[in-house]
Amino acid sequence: MSRTLLASASVLALSSLAWPGIAGAQQKEETTVLEPITVTATKRVQEAFEVPATVAIVEAQELQDRGIASAGELDRAFVDTNIRSRSNRAYTNVTVRGQSSVDYYEPSVQLYVDGLPQDPSIFSQLLPAGLDSVELLYGPQGTLYGRGAIGGVINVVTRKPDNELRVDTAGALHTQGGDASLLLNTPIIDGVIYGDAALTFRREADQYTLLGSGQEIGGTDDLNGRIRLRYAPDDSPLDVMVSTQRGRVDSTEEQFVMESMFNDRIALPIDSRYRLDTASFGVNASYDLDFATITALTGYQDRKLDRTTLGFQTPEDQTTFSQELRIASDPELGNALDYVVGVYGQRLDFERRTPLIGQVSQQTIDSYAIFGDLAWHATDRLDISPGLRFDYEKARARADGAVTIAGERSFGGVSPKLGASYALDDEWRVHGLFSTGYKAGGFTRNVTPENIAFTYDPQNTYNGETGIKYRALDGSLEASLSAYYNVTKDYQLFVGDVYLKYLQNAGEVTAKGINLAFRANPTERLGIAGGLGLNRTTFTKYENSVNPGIDYTGNRVPYAPEFTANLALDYAFDLAEGWGQLIPRAGMTYAGSVFFDETNTIGQKGFFLVDLGLSWKVSEQVVADVFVNNVFDETYAVYGFTEATYGNLYQLGTGAPSAAV
């Protein structure tokens, strides 16, 4: 194996290691049949099978078994999803159903942790300790989530602090790095107040060699700490959790190679590095009224990114304060009508500095919304789910330096939804859905003398979906098949020179495709999960004020693969009494070809990634894993652009070379 393959080969992982006298974390038995699962990303508890839309849920144990440790690796578990670092992981590109995050300040897929919105840069960081599951709502989610949720919503669910004293640990030692997590949960006042503290760390070794000097470069250190307190007295309707978190990423990963040096991973010797500091504070409070639950969610996040790319420094800061108040019915009461109704407010402050030209750009964006989503159980088999959201946003911008700006703009948006779900029998269910997504207009954050315009208009997406779901009565198989078609008007796209890109409207985009996903236990020992996505996302009407004479109508949208697939297999062998089980695993992911810009002249061909692993499950409390990610040593480009001096430049994933388009 080459050096790059060994960098991702784990030689040891211990998970949920209990201290004597302290109970370890409960883990799902690999050989049990599938249990019905619920989803909370719809802002009320629902069975995923009954939601009139495509929903996917992956539990923490499966992610750990496959070595998936960050949100940026979730496309190995979710079909029709492509997540790749774009230049650096603070600007991770997330594509779901062809809706790619070409606007890296406001990705097309929103990330939430325990119901709280996260800064886009959090996609780069490790998944939180004490993870319970990760949920993905496919397609536009404008009614429930408002601005930006065009492609979908990823909701990370953690296990709340409780009355059990336990220590959860997980770790992996790699030949060129490693990661570890530690979670301590403890009651503070028995039956009343609980708390936990968590620490996660990942070290990624250097991945490139600098041209000329031969210096190894491209490594990353990721450290994150979290403390939570929860007030939830026994038999009390009140539940309040307060959390605070700090994270730091130090990295030189943002290296670029010329096409002629792609195979050798030799990077240009030009200063490229960044430090990402994040801090957050959250309050998640709920009160059970018996017939409904009132939930208040308060979040604050502070992000500081000190970034230098190819010698060009552009530090930026962002703070976000959000508040949501909602009431959701109790579905266990069996009422004919279930509902969630709420209000939302957010303030975002942003500053970007360009020392080279003495430019400072600032923005303040205030957002307000009211929303409602209903589920009318018209009959024992038929559910009808309408929804509506009203958004209002005001953006104020100021720029000083080479360019001077002082302005204010306001926008309003209406996001309707209508879904229907019908049970053909106890195992089969069909659904249809019309949903919408909305991104407000505003002022571009990248202000330079090269900008032709400094404002852009709102973007609206209209989506239609139909599908069928199957769930075996014995829980041994779940499967879903869905087809979708959506149109986006006034598509927001970064345009201009690679060093000076800014946001503008670029016409109309159409996405259409098919998703298939399944999860099965054919026998008590064998587990299979997988899926595939077919997608075609193109510019159906290209309009770009920067180059009005150029028409890219018919071209594919950047970062949107036409075909994705994944498959995971595991089989449990019983060992001698007292020795537990041995569980070999295999995971395969295929990502189809993508282009890195709207010209469709630079991109990456499709490629397979294969992961193999072996788990020794001594008990519920002690598990040792050995796994190798990217077995066939595949190297691929995750980002690229054409530069006047060096030609095509690429940033690479790990592995051996794969030809670039």
Automatic annotation (TrEMBL):
Keywords: Cell outer membrane, Ion transport, Iron, Iron transport, Membrane, Receptor, Signal, TonB box, Transmembrane, Transmembrane beta strand, Transport. It is found in: Cell outer membrane. Residues 49-153 form the TonB-dependent receptor plug domain. Residues 1-25 form the signal peptide. The keyword Membrane applies. It is a multi-pass membrane protein. SUPFAM superfamilies: Porins. One of its GO terms (biological process) is iron ion transport. Pfam families: Plug (PF07715), TonB_dep_Rec_b-barrel (PF00593). Residues 220-631 form the TonB-dependent receptor-like beta-barrel domain. The keyword Transmembrane applies. One of its GO terms (cellular component) is cell outer membrane. InterPro entries: Beta-barrel_TonB, Beta-barrel_TonB_sf, Plug_dom, TonB-dep_rcpt-like. Belongs to the TonB-dependent receptor family. This is Probabable outer membrane receptor. It comes from Sinorhizobium meliloti (strain SM11).
